[in-house]
C-alpha cells in the first residue's frame, strides 16, 4: 500500500467515526479486531444472538498473507487510531464486547477491552500471550513443563548455546508468527545457521519484521491441539486433536491430518488439566484459545497458545463431529455468560463421530493453469466430506509444501463409520496432485562463451 493510500485510509477513518456512532444507535454492538481467516465465522455467531459487530483493523495496511475479513459481515469498520480516537468512537457507539478475530488482533483487543471496561483478559499479560519467548518463560516460571529456550539475533550465540546444553536437535522459529511459518528442526550447526538466515531475511505471516530468532530444545513426542472457550476463568474444552505430521529432510514440519480424539481417551484428561493451568498462568480468563502441546515421556509440555479461535475452525463440520463449535461458544460466552457457565463450565466435549482435517501437501512447483473442477466435485461428493477449501487457483503460484500456508488444499471429513472416513481420506490423498495443472518455470538459459 502506498503512503498516499495509507493517508487516505486514515483520513477515511476520521470520516467514518461519526458514521460508526450513527449506525450503532439503538443497536447492540461489539467489536472484533483483525478477524482474518477463521475469524470470519465470528460475526454470524454474534448476529445469531442479536448483536451487530464492528471490525477494527489494527493497521492501515491489511495483512496480505491471511484470508481477508469480510466487510459485508459487519455493521461498520474502523482502522485503529493509535492517538486514542478509536477508543472514544467505540465508547460513543456503546460497544459491549471486544475480542480478537485472529492472532494479530490479540494485543489490541486486550487494550481496547480494558479501556472500554468490558469483559477483558487485560493488558498485564498481553505480551506473554503473543510473544512466544515471554509465553514460555511465564509458563515455565509457574513450574510447568516447557522447552528450554534462547532468544537472539546472533547465530553463533545460538550454536554455542545449543552445543553447550546438548540440545541437538533444536527448533528455530520466528518470535510471533503462525501456521508453522519459518519453523525448522535443526540437527546441526549448519542447519541452524541456514534457519537463522531464512527467518531474519523474511517477515511473519502478519507482515511483521523478524529481528530475532527463538531457539528451543526439541520436544520429542506426539503433538496435540486443545481448543477451549472460557468465562471468568472457567475453561470448556471443546476439542482435542492429534497432529499427524512428518519432518522433511530440510527440517520443516509438514502437518498432514488433525484427528479428533474421543473425549474418554486417557490422554485427553491429562491434556485438559495441563491446558487449563496454562490458561490460568497466562490470564486467559475469557474467550477462545488454541493451545498446542507435545506429550513427552515426562508428560505434556507447551508449544504455544493463541488467544483466539483455531485456524481450522469450520462450524458446520465441528457441529456434526462434536455438537458444538468455538464460534457459537465464543458468542455465548461474551453475550450470555451465565448460560455458558451453566451448560459448559469446566467441561469437556463429547465426540459424536470420528473426524479429521486434512491439510494436503504438494510437490508441485510453478503457476496454476487450471483446477480440475470435476475432481473437486468428486471429492465433495465423498460421504465423509463436509467441505473443502482449494487454496490455489488459475494464475496463482504453487510451491512444494513446507508449512501450513503452502498446503494448497484443506478437507474437512467426518463420518459415523471410521472405515468410510479412512477410505475417503485415502482417495483424496491419492488424487491430490491431479487437482492442479501447473506450468513449470522455464529453465534459466546457460551463460558463457560459445
Structure in words:
The chain is of the alpha+beta class and about 450 residues long. Helix content is about 35%, strand content about 25%. It has helices at about 5-25, 40-50, 85-90, 105-115, 125-130, 130-140, 155-165, 190-200, 265-280, 315-320, 325-335, 335-345, 375-380, 420-430, and strands spanning about 30-35, 50-55, 75-80, 100, 150, 170-175, 185, 215, 220-230, 235-245, 255-260, 285-295, 300-305, 355-360, 365-370, 385-390, 395-400, 410-415, 435-440. Strands 13-12-9-10-11-14-18-16 form an eight-stranded antiparallel beta sheet, sandwiched between helices. Helix 1 packs parallel to helix 3 and helix 7 packs antiparallel against helix 8. The protein is globular, with a radius of gyration of 22 Å.
Judging from the principal axes of the Cα atoms, what is the shape? globular
Percent in strands: 25-35%
What is the averaged pLDDT score? 91
Report the helical percentage.
25-40%
Task: From the alpha carbons, calculate the radius of gyration and give it in angstroms.
Answer: 22 Å
Secondary structure class reads alpha+beta
Give the termini separation. 45 Å
What topology, given as strand order, has the largest sheet? 13-12-9-10-11-14-18-16
Largest sheet: 8 strands, antiparallel
Which structural traits does this protein have?
25% strand, eight-stranded antiparallel beta sheet, single chain, 450 residues, disordered N terminus, alpha+beta, four-stranded parallel beta sheet, globular, disordered C terminus
Amino acid at each position: 500500500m502506498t503512503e498516499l493510500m495509507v493517508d487516505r485510509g486514515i483520513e477515511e477513518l476520521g470520516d467514518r467515526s461519526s458514521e460508526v456512532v450513527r449506525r450503532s444507535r439503538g443497536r447492540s454492538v461489539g467489536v472484533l479486531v483483525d478477524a482474518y481467516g477463521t475469524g470470519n465465522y465470528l460475526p454470524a455467531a454474534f448476529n445469531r444472538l442479536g448483536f451487530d459487530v464492528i471490525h477494527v483493523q489494527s493497521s492501515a495496511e491489511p495483512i496480505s498473507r491471511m484470508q481477508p475479513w469480510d466487510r459485508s459481515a459487519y455493521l461498520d469498520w474502523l482502522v485503529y487510531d493509535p492517538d486514542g480516537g478509536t477508543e472514544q468512537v467505540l465508547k460513543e457507539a456503546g460497544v459491549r464486547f471486544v475480542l480478537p478475530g485472529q492472532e494479530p488482533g490479540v494485543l489490541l483487543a486486550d487494550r481496547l477491552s480494558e479501556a472500554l471496561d468490558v469483559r477483558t483478559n487485560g493488558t498485564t499479560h498481553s505480551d506473554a500471550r503473543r510473544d512466544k519467548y515471554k509465553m514460555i518463560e511465564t509458563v515455565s516460571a509457574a513450574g510447568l513443563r516447557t522447552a528450554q529456550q534462547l532468544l537472539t539475533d546472533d547465530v553463533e550465540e545460538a550454536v554455542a548455546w545449543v552445543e553447550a546444553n546438548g540440545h541437538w536437535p533444536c527448533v528455530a522459529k520466528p518470535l510471533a508468527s503462525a501456521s508453522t511459518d519459518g519453523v525448522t528442526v535443526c540437527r546441526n550447526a549448519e542447519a541452524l545457521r541456514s534457519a537463522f538466515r531464512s527467518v531474519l531475511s523474511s517477515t511473519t505471516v502478519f507482515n511483521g519484521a523478524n529481528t530475532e530468532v527463538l531457539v528451543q530444545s526439541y520436544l520429542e513426542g506426539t503433538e496435540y491441539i486443545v481448543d477451549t472457550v472460557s468465562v471468568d476463568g472457567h475453561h470448556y474444552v471443546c476439542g482435542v486433536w492429534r497432529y499427524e505430521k512428518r519432518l522433511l529432510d530440510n527440517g520443516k514440519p509438514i502437518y498432514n491430518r488433525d484427528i479428533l480424539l474421543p473425549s474418554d481417551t486417557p490422554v485427553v484428561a491429562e491434556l485438559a488439566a495441563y491446558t487449563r493451568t496454562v490458561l490460568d498462568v497466562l490470564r486467559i480468563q475469557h474467550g477462545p484459545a488454541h493451545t498446542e502441546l507435545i506429550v513427552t515421556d515426562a508428560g505434556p509440555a507447551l508449544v504455544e497458545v493463541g488467544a483466539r479461535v483455531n485456524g481450522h475452525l469450520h462450524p458446520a463440520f465441528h457441529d456434526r463431529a462434536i455438537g458444538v463449535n468455538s464460534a457459537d461458544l465464543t458468542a455465548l460466552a461474551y453475550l450470555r455468560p451465565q448460560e455458558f457457565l451453566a451448560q459448559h463450565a469446566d467441561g469437556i466435549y463429547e465426540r459424536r463421530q470420528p473426524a479429521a482435517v486434512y491439510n494436503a501437501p504438494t510437490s508441485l512447483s510453478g503457476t496454476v493453469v487450471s483446477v480440475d473442477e470435476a475432481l473437486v466435485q468428486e471429492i465433495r461428493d465423498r460421504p465423509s466430506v463436509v467441505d473443502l477449501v482449494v487454496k490455489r487457483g488459475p494464475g496463482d503460484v504453487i510451491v512444494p509444501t513446507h508449512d501450513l500456508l503452502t498446503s494448497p488444499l484443506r478437507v474437512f471429513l467426518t463420518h459415523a463409520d471410521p472405515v468410510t472416513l479412512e477410505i475417503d481420506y485415502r482417495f483424496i490423498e491419492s488424487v491430490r496432485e491431479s487437482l492442479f495443472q501447473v506450468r513449470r518455470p522455464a529453465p534459466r538459459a546457460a551463460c558463457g562463451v560459445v
